[in-house]
Amino acid sequence: MKHDQSVTHTIGHLIDGRIVADAARTQPVFNPATGLSSSSVALADRATVEQAIASAQAAFPAWRNTPPLKRARVMSRLKGLLEENADKIAALITAEHGKVLSDAHGELQRGIENVEYASYAPELLKGEHSRNVGPSIDSWSEFQALGVTAGITPFNFPAMVPLWMWPMALVCGNTFVLKPSERDPSSVLFIAQLALQAGVPPGVLNVVNGDKEAVDTLLTDARVKAVSFVGSTPIAQSIYATGCAHGKRVQALGGAKNHAVLMPDADVNNAVSALMGAAYGSCGERCMAIPLLVAVGDAVGDAVVAGLKTEIAKMKVGPGTDNGNDMGPLVTKQHFEKVRAYVDSGVAEGAELVVDGRGVQVAPGHENGYFLGACLFDQVRPGMKIYQEEIFGPVLGVVRVKTLQEAMDLIDAHEYGNGTCIFTRDGEAARYFSDHIQVGMVGVNVPLPVPVAYHSFGGFKRSLFGDLNAYGPDAVRFYTKRKTITQRWPSAGVREGAVFSFPSNR
Ligand code: NAD
């Protein structure tokens, strides 16, 4: 591992409103465009995480009783601060994740929209009221805060995914401990400091950097009432099982292998443009990326492969800081090697490598960056590793089938069910597809159907463990518990004797 010793600093935690660093264990953070490391991140031990939980626990009673409108105003101020600091946040994302700056701005904007939604909290928390459910009896349901809640987030959207979680948790009256990805921790920490500036009281939002030790502490500590997780499927499944076994409410969003279906009647040029961004944007490191295209019929299959080949030749690969580039590097050396090995395995298993991105040339000074050019496989078949497994890199595979039903059967048989999309001009086919397909988020001529902040995000099958989706209306339900109160004030003249039968409205 290369360290540039001249600028080393340790990225710490935010606990009780202060930056602290327990640097007993640290891990280098790399700039994927150069392969150099200029900082390291502290990896919290159990005691540090317990300190963060204690701080969140102590801050809970006052925050719970803060009027929702005041909590919401904090989010309105935060929205302004995020917009003012957008360039700085995007630069932090690009420096550690590698994605191009325009894409970093895009992820931040989607995060800001979640903050904006959180600022509607008083409306979202109004509850339900029924008058006269019985004689002079009123009943209502209210949505009460849970207490200390926690989030564990992946590397690929270091700003956006945390913003799916804690703004909604906070406006619902909870306090929060966030454990972001140790691979790109700086933008998260900076945003948390902006939250303090916006008026989040110390202890209400804490950030602990770390790895499995920190996560295990959050999952087993009885003071943590709910855990939101986003990351790979094996970890999501184990987080769900462990968190539930410790009596917590858990939503754990996992990996994906999203298929797009290209119908014979589709506008192929539009589909090619859409697929370029969906397959290669952010180097394929998106859980809603399209790594598989199912072409229905050989004519449209041949046309799309030819179109993609032409467009890939025009793509610019290089450091994300250069606005002229379309695609940056992969996040770490290990991930780069893993994705390359998938390309090797696709060749070995007999898929046709139409475009080979291995050995891509990038600007001088970036030879040690983790760059892989766009790869395109044709003749991919179920059973191949590149078909079955999530690659999370710039690798698009084309599968050929004869009918829409065959395409749908393939999608439904896959272990993941996060997103999918159909390109067609046939409304009936699109309606049938979106009605029946076993996938949580469906696009019709929309390649990345990521729900907006006022809907909720979640997949089917092994892409989500839990009952409620992330952000939007589901987040209000996830971060609150329903309490139903039934009330009567007997007036002086009305006195009932004991009643032994079950009350009803007959
Ligand atoms: P990851 O599963 O490796 O890590 C996610 C988080 O879990 C990180 O904070 C990490 O520190 C922690 N973690 C890792 N190993 C752990 C362990 N053994 N025990 C406890 N905690 C552990 O995922 P990643 O590589 O950071 O992110 C990419 C994955 O996330 C992809 O699979 C992608 O599809 C998925 N993802 C899913 C969604 C979604 O909404 N479904 C969104 C973004 C990313």
From TrEMBL:
<dbReference type="InterPro" id="IPR016162">
    <property type="entry name" value="Ald_DH_N"/>
</dbReference>
<dbReference type="Pfam" id="PF00171">
    <property type="entry name" value="Aldedh"/>
</dbReference>
<protein>
    <submittedName>
        <fullName>Methylmalonate-semialdehyde dehydrogenase (CoA acylating)</fullName>
        <ecNumber>1.2.1.27</ecNumber>
    </submittedName>
</protein>
<dbReference type="GO" id="GO:0004491">
    <property type="term" value="F:methylmalonate-semialdehyde dehydrogenase (acylating, NAD) activity"/>
</dbReference>
<dbReference type="InterPro" id="IPR016161">
    <property type="entry name" value="Ald_DH/histidinol_DH"/>
</dbReference>
<dbReference type="InterPro" id="IPR010061">
    <property type="entry name" value="MeMal-semiAld_DH"/>
</dbReference>
<feature type="domain" description="Aldehyde dehydrogenase">
    <location>
        <begin position="22"/>
        <end position="485"/>
    </location>
</feature>
<keyword id="KW-0560">Oxidoreductase</keyword>
<dbReference type="InterPro" id="IPR016163">
    <property type="entry name" value="Ald_DH_C"/>
</dbReference>
<dbReference type="InterPro" id="IPR015590">
    <property type="entry name" value="Aldehyde_DH_dom"/>
</dbReference>
